[in-house]
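Notes to self after the call with IL:
- keep both proteins in one doc
- input above output, always
- annotate only the second one for now

Protein 1:
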Amino acid sequence: MISLTAIRHALARAPAQPPEPSRSMAAVAMAFAGEPEALDLCLILRATREGDRWSGQMAFPGGKAEPDDPTAQAVAIREAREEVGLQLDEAEPLGALPPVTVRPRGPLGVLSPFAFYVGPQRPVLRPNDGEVEAAWWVPLSHLWDEAHRGTIDWEYRGQWMRFPGIRFEGHVIWGLTYRVLTQWSQQLGRPLPGTGGAPFERL
């Protein structure tokens, strides 16, 4: 399975250059915890909120930059603290992943993922009631288990599309979060099962 050493080496081989914080920039935290050979990853279920493009979806803790955020990594640290109570300023920073272009309902944006190792103990996650419906430590072994592959149908501008994903606790990890996981798995040299095909299928 994916070890802490493998993650460190993969991120060190191809260090990313995250952009400076701006109104069009967001950042997420990929927070790992557990024994180095049996890691879990923090994922959340976003609360259902009107006007939120990713409302009700599985995601990493994260959000948009604010004017007083000094760096993109600081955005990820602040959002993880606000959304689930994680103190990532005390965690080991593992590195940045390549920024991902995001096209929400509005101007083009950039998402910067940052990886952290919290430690062998899994801190209790405390979801922010206004932003997060639930939060979990998801075993990495679950993400790579082909038995958990799934799909989700989504309507966008009158067109129904089917997206690949990973089933977990009655939900599907898909969309932007799945895209980040896919790129990260390729960077590790251990692509997630079934990620070599088209990003979606028109129905």
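Protein 2 (the one to annotate):
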Amino acid sequence: MNLEFNYHNMNKIFFPLFLALSMALSVSAADYQLELAVPFTDNMILQRESKVPIWGFDAPGNQVTVEFAGQTKTAVADKNGDWMVKLDPLKASREERGLEVKNNRGKSISLKGVLVGEVWFSSGQSNMVWTAGKSMCNQLVREIAASKEDIPIREININTVSALYPQKKATSEGGWKKASGASGFSALSLSFAYELYKELN
């Protein structure tokens, strides 16, 4: 095997690599845009009586403002394009309200149907993805569907992935879903949420 190299040949190798890397970095920088992290979608629930972090992504140095329930909070995207604000503690509310996010470049995001209440994480093995409509919770699903009032139970399912390193951005199919779609909720999560709803209502 011939391992002999010379400086002239190495220049030929490194220049195209450097050029390709520079182009990739410039495309990445141009791709920045105002964005909310996955937990923040229409119909979400924010945790009551606690400082609530709202975070997302934008071009480094951009100023981002979040407005909700009479509060206005501002942050600046860091060198990695990350930003976060924290809302002051909120009282529980079944009133559907809007949340506005905007930056100093004229870009904005508007969310609707936002509630304030209890937020719980459900995590486990295959039993956690057993859907309510195909389980012993089927009767509960029918009760919720037949209710004359909008039951304020909602669910977001965060996709799981196998990765060699922590992932910066999570993904979700469809974001937060209202109780009208409870047949597709996790059976265990729905039964717990309904008991909590009855206790707190």
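Annotation: The two ends are 77 Å apart (CA to CA). The beta strands are 35-36, 45-47, 52-57, 63-68, 71-76, 82-87, 93-103, 108-117.
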